Amino acid sequence: TNTQSELHASILQKINNHPCYSQDAHQHYARIHVAVAPACNIQCNYCNRKYDCSNESRPGVTSYKLKPEEAVKKVLHVGGLIQQLSVVGIAGPGDGLANPKQTFETFALLKKYAPDIKLCLSTNGLMIHKHIDEIAKYTIEHVTVTLNTVDESGEIGSKIYPWVFYEHKKHRGLEGAKLLLEKQLLGIKMLVERGILVKVNAVLIPGINDAHLPLVAKKVKELGVFIFNVMPLISKPEFGTKFGLDGVPSANHKQLMRAQEACDVNVKMMRHCRQCRADAVGLLGEDRSDEFFKESFADKS
Ligand code: SF4
Ligand code: SF4
Q: Which Gene Ontology biological process is one annotated for this entry (predicted)?
């Protein structure tokens, strides 16, 4: 039908120069992450606060934090040097929506000074429902939500998330896990309803959620999520994460392949993710953050 092909055209238009959403685009278009969001509102057992949010980034990497106006300066500078720059993402170093002031100030400035660039946001999903109007207002076309479990009892979630901070209160254990899941599902639904393309990331945590991931994939498909990305847990004691210290081993390549196959329930799978850092610059897999790290965009005054 007409509407179906119109819908199809609008999706194509959204993904055709986004390196993370389109396999074809990932060799031709570049993205930049600006690390403007330091705080987080939940605790993941694979996270060490000294480093970037492990939901979208490679664990064990520390990004240089920027203020919104510094971030925009950096985007404009990089955009002048890398012609293929098509996407700006906020993926940490904490959670974009746990720092709404910095995040939306950055998006507002980008809309003004770099109106052609696509905006992307990555979040743990707890606060999407509260900011859905702002997300739509700044025409953020792409949102990544990390959803590691859809277990309604909270059992699996409580092993991953020791606490969730919501409305001035720390919610622990099953209660926290159930609350997070409820808000994640609500948030994803709201995004899909507004026509925003959603990517769901799930961290494959051996012995905790590996067998459960096909159920996550099923839910993701039901919700109308655009693409599903299973990322391996990288746990190292030197990262100081709870899982690393407790000896939950990293997921190996074989486990990842097996999980990706088990999750291939007719939902589009991302197979070219590079677990980029919160200040990544360049094509996926060609990280030029160090090059631009040396040039300081921080306000010295
Ligand atoms: Fe760390 Fe990201 Fe989890 Fe927050 S959402 S605790 S920054 S991994
Ligand atoms: Fe967006 Fe994630 Fe790609 Fe960054 S790596 S541009 S946050 S989808």
A: molybdopterin cofactor biosynthetic process
- ipTM for the assembly: 0.89
> Which atom of ligand 2 is closest in space to residue 19's alpha carbon?
3
70 lines ligand 2 (CB under 6 A): no
Measured from the Cα of 146, ligand 1's closest atom is 5
Residue-range definition of the domain harbouring residue 245: 30-290
Using one digit for the tens of pLDDT, what is the confidence trace for 133-180?
Answer: 999 999 998 999 999 999 999 999 999 999 999 999 999 999 999 999
What is the number of domains present in the chain? 1
Closest ligand 2 atom number to CA of residue 280: 4
Nearest CA to ligand 1 atom 4: 40
CATH number of residue 247's parent domain: 3.20.20.70
Domain assignment of residue 15, yes or no: no
| C-beta of 60 in contact with ligand 2 (< 6 A) | no
Would you say residue 278 lies in a domain?
yes
Residue 186 lies in a domain: yes
Which residue in the block uniquely carries the two structure tokens 């507002």?
108
